[in-house]
From TrEMBL:
This is ABC transporter ATP-binding protein YtrE. Pfam families: ABC_tran. GO terms for molecular function: ATP binding. InterPro entries: AAA+_ATPase (IPR003593), ABC_transporter-like_ATP-bd (IPR003439), ABC_transporter-like_CS (IPR017871), ABC_transpr_LolD-like (IPR015854), MacB-like_ATP-bd (IPR017911), P-loop_NTPase (IPR027417).
Length: 230
């Protein structure tokens, strides 16, 4: 479902003539199978976020290939990437990334507007999704009127609304207390089991890493360990 071949990336910082090259990912290859939860761990600065940004297409790799569902995303132009994301990928971020001036309903509905879904269909699908994440009665609340766990559920509902086969998550429980974290991890497992959604999750939290069917450890931009956890 996701295939990474010989992926390398570096950042160039500083002004012309005094540039420094920072190699961040060094010849990484791995696969994520359909229906799998893959977790990627590693210390701060090991390249986890860079890897997720590359898979998302937010940045382009210096070298190597990224294939998702048979499409070579590392070669798509911006317009095709945007279209690809809306049909194939859902995103969950540590900081939720909800739009503060929109209600829970409007935040979840937004991807359907981008997809061109009709008014009536949008209302029905958005309500169904809010129900699924247990937040229908909070649909008119703004993000600031919701707890951290509820905000993360809104962001998951927004990710799920377009039925993505894959969800990419960046420290999904990083802003949650341990009880809420446990609830969210159970919910991710349910989504994986019941809907077959494939997850690629980066984290430095062992509890999150443990929900992975497999886990990869990055160190200094390289894979140092790849193992089956469950
Ligand atoms: N836009 C950028 N420009 C220059 N250097 C960058 C950029 N983004 C990341 N880096 C560098 O790349 C390295 C890897 O960063 P990355 O954010 O991928 O690590 P990480 O494992 O996700 O860390 P954390 O767990 O702290 O988020 C770091 O040395 C960082 O300073």
């Amino acid at each position: 479902m996701i295939t990474i071949n010989n992926l390398s990336h570096e950042f160039v910082i500083g002004k012309k003539g005094r540039q420094t090259i920072i190699p961040v990912l060094k010849n990484i290859s791995f696969k994520v199978e359909k229906g799998e939860i893959m977790t990627i761990v590693g210390r701060s600065g090991s390249g986890k976020s860079t890897l997720l940004n590359l898979v998302s297409g937010f940045i382009r790799p210096k070298d190597g290939e990224i294939w998702i569902n048979g499409t070579k995303v590392s070669e798509l132009n911006e317009a095709k990437l945007a279209d690809f994301r809306i049909h194939h990928l859902g995103f969950i971020f540590q900081s939720f990334q909800l739009i503060p001036s929109m209600t829970a309903f409007q935040n979840v509905e937004l991807p359907l507007i981008l997809k061109g879904v009709s008014d009536r269909e949008r209302k029905q699908q958005t309500e169904e999704m809010l129900e699924r994440v247990g937040l229908l009665e909070y649909q008119d609340h703004y993000p600031s009127e919701l707890s951290g766990g509820q905000q993360q559920r809104v962001s998951i509902a927004r990710a799920l609304i377009v039925n993505p086969p894959i969800i990419l998550a960046d420290e999904p429980t990083g802003s949650l207390d341990s009880e809420t974290e446990e609830d969210l991890l159970q919910f991710i497992k349910e989504l994986n089991r019941d809907l077959g959604i494939t997850f690629l999750i980066i984290t430095h939290d062992d509890k999150v890493a443990e929900i992975g069917h497999r886990t990869i450890e990055l160190s200094d931009g390289k894979i140092v360990e790849e193992g089956v956890l469950v």
